[in-house]
Amino acid sequence: MLDTIGVDSVDELFADKQQQHRNPTLDLPPPMSECDLKRYFGELATMNKTPGEYACFLGAGSYRHHIPAIVRQLTSRSEFMTAYTPYQPEISQGTLQTEFEFQTLCAQLTGMDVANAGMYDGSTSLAEAVLMASRVTRRTRVAVLDSVSPAYISVLRTYAEPPGITVDVVSADNPELNEDTACLVAQQPNFLGYIQDMQAIADRAHDAGALFVVYADALSMAMFTPPGDCGADIVASEGQALGVPPTFGGPYVGIFACKQSYIRQMPGRIVGRTVDSQGRTAYVLTLQTREQHIRRERATSNICTSVALIALMSTVYMAANGRHGMRRAAELTYQKAHYLASLIGGIPGYSVVDGGVFFQEFAVQCPMPPSTLNERLLEYKIIGGLDISEQLQNGMLICATEVNTREEIDAFAAALAEIGTTV
Amino acid sequence: MTTLLERLSQDRRQLLMDRSVSGRVGATLPESDVPHQPLPEEGLLRDTLDFPEVSENELVRYLSQLSQLNFSIDHNFYPLGSCTMKYNPKVDDEIASMPGFAEIHPLQPDATVQGALRLMWELQQRLIEITGMQGCSLAPMAGADGEFAGILMARAYHQDRGNTQRNKVLIPDSAHGTNPATANMCGFEVVTLPSDANGNTDLEALRFSVGDDLAGLMITLPSTLGLFDSNILEVVRVVRDAGGIVYGDGANLNALLGRVKLGDLGFDVMHSNLHKTFTQPHGGGGPGAGPVIVGERLLPYMPTPVVNRSADNDGNLIYTLKAPPQTVGRMGAFHGNFGALVRAYAYICTLGDQGIANISHDAVINANYILSRLKGYYDLPYDRSCMHEVVFSARNLKREHGISALDVAKRLIDYGIHPPTMYFPLIVEEALMVEPTETESKETLDGFIEVMRAIAQEAQDAPDLLHNAPHDTPNTRLDEARAARRPYLRWQPED
Ligand SMILES: Cc1ncc(COP(=O)(O)O)c(C=O)c1O
């Protein structure tokens, strides 16, 4: 091949100018065989305390649910897994049609008109929702209820502040808006797990001429009134709960849905239906003049590679569970969480915060710092809830879903009681 | 009248909602094993969820059939320029799905996820070594997100020094669209830099554009023309002397592995598209990962978190998630696309020191081999040796036979090969950007070359064959204008 190219060595192909920097030393370990590789990574994996082996009661944006076997089977098909973004629609109808299904399911779940094909994760989806609200209203402030997850607020700041949007964290009890407010952002259920009166918050936003942006928990929408029925203009959500393993935080999939009138301001990939030259139905990436490869610095977002395969996992999950399975998964989760709360409420020294109706998680005040408690719980093979002592004194955010068995829940309550008496 | 055959092929494309039959379900759930808990008042609950009802078997068949409408790298050669469609080793998928990685929760205390943190720390170190940089954050979730993190760091760096007047970012005219889109998201004004006749950065124009208002430069090396900018050291010097930050778009890192380290050339920050250079399967458009790897000036500003290693009193190594002191913040809710990081690190371990350098060796030879053998059949806008990819132009075919880059691309599909990237970079008329990658054999390349030559011949002899291509696909060319004019973005009941 070098002969065909007309050089003696590959070095000749690298420009002369960088001679002094050419072929640097690489201080890396030697290659591993597949056998060694599996052993080494197997060792790393077993150094983690893994939910399943440990009972786990963490939520706060990443949830454990049963994932039907077909999710992994179907999404592992290399036709889906090893294709690129569907720029050539004639040979990408598999990806395109499944993305169209995802958009349909997300629009229906959120109760909105349309959804895109997915964003990196729920938090960036929320950030993009706020950027879009600012474009739509041409206003430069955003009001975020103080009941929104602190992690999401911090992601929001990362994305919103550089282009000149001011993020105001406002009281959930009495949000103050003004004529510069582009949108009001609420989380349903809120960070502590409680359901809020969305319509009332929507009215506050709309009265001020602002859009109402809702970050909604994905599975809760199968059971509770969806944001689309409570005045939401844009809805962001984390699709992870729907068929995606926790995977230490990613890859996940951000759901992004909105009203029809805003479609030309949406970020991300959007698949539309059309026909081919023989009049047959087909699907294609559309409204691409919003996107970076065409609009460049005037694009609605810089997103390019997104999370198509994870969106497919959620699609399979939603389709497999379907109309009734989704509701049942949500209700089972509700049952487990409420059973756990009822047990904890009866343990001396612990109190469940009375924040109204909750879905899958709730806040508890513990008789000792949650970090200490969590350390002790490991002895019982339990991974406790999230330490939220910054928000609530000795506060722990506790989550249970349908994968937590009664046995696990009883053991958790018993361990809390036992550790509680040692204060 | 539709024939039975036509109807069956339509039926195969029916959407889930049209397949729905009341009462069917494709997944089972357990009975509740806890005492019944009262539900909240009706008013809070959803009336109906308009979701499909399909059985498991039906769902499997539907999606399996749909999958077969896709072209994939496992199917055949996929020389999609700038996208680095290399073969994805299967063992990496197996490793990423080990329960000790897939099941761990992102908010577990650090002490319970030492294996995951150690993996991330080791990957940070490898990326630092490969690029000659000094720090790394794995948080960004794709290349564009890495760009965003990098330019945010440049912004924070200038703000810290009170240089808020530095509001311009220089970007070559050959750059990928994510570069200008990113600079704009960070609140900067984009100034486009022309390329010179050889495809290098135009130094005159560069010197003219730098000043007190310069925030930095975003540059891709090798460039999106597949060329190693022979002015690069001078480019870096000019920008740094003017007080600017040099950002490297690492999408083309494949060409540099083991050959050149951007850190050695004076770059301040770069991202690596792990899904390109380090083989995360593309998944039909993600997920990927776009770690940022930074030099000394920007270390304090990296996005959070970064994994730190320290030793406890007994000398045991402890890994912890830390926020850099003046971090630009969080890119996402958690710590980046961990699943993609596991795969990329497994790939790096497989390759080891020697394997890493072999990548650029083979990738560059493969691209130059194609260049040499297709030159004369297709226009070569920059007649010099290339790096890991080669950009041809179909402008001669267009002028002489009315055949566009699009026609060539679609005709390749008839031959069972994925088209190259078309119409990018924007500065090349009728561009066809071919990136073979290192994982393709000489036989595969020869097959591609033969087909490309045949297509050039067909352009003369039978242009309609190209205009009407592809012929043998589930759908012929699509009416894209109609899709955009009348957006139809979800299933609707009146269908
Ligand atoms: C040169 C270049 N820069 C940046 C990107 C963006 O990377 P990503 O798609 O991972 O966001 C790409 C990918 O398409 C690219 O080719």
State the secondary-structure class of chain A: alpha/beta
Shape of chain B: globular
Secondary-structure element series of chain B: HHHHHHEHEHEHEHEEHEEEHEHHEEHHH
| Unreliable segments of 5+ consecutive residues of chain A | none
First-last Cα distance of chain A = 75 Å
Characterise this structure.
In chain A, the strands form 4 sheets. A 7-stranded mixed beta sheet of chain A has the order 2-8-7-6-5-3-4, with helices on both faces. Chain A is globular and about 80 Å long. Chain A has 423 residues and is α/β, with parallel strands linked by helices. Chain A has 12 helices and 15 strands. Helix content of chain A is 35%, strand content 15%. Chain B is built from 17 helices and 12 strands. In chain B, the strands form 3 sheets. A 7-stranded mixed beta sheet of chain B has the order 1-7-6-5-4-2-3, sandwiched between helices. In chain B, strands 10-12-11 form a 3-stranded antiparallel beta sheet, with helices on one face. A two-stranded antiparallel sheet of chain B has the order 8-9. In chain B, helix 4 packs antiparallel against helix 12 and helix 6 packs parallel to helix 12. Chain B is globular and about 70 Å long. Chain B starts with a helix and ends in a 10-residue tail after the last helix. Chains A and B meet through helix 1, helix 2, helix 3, helix 4 and helix 5 of A and helix 3, helix 4, helix 5, helix 6 and helix 7 of B.
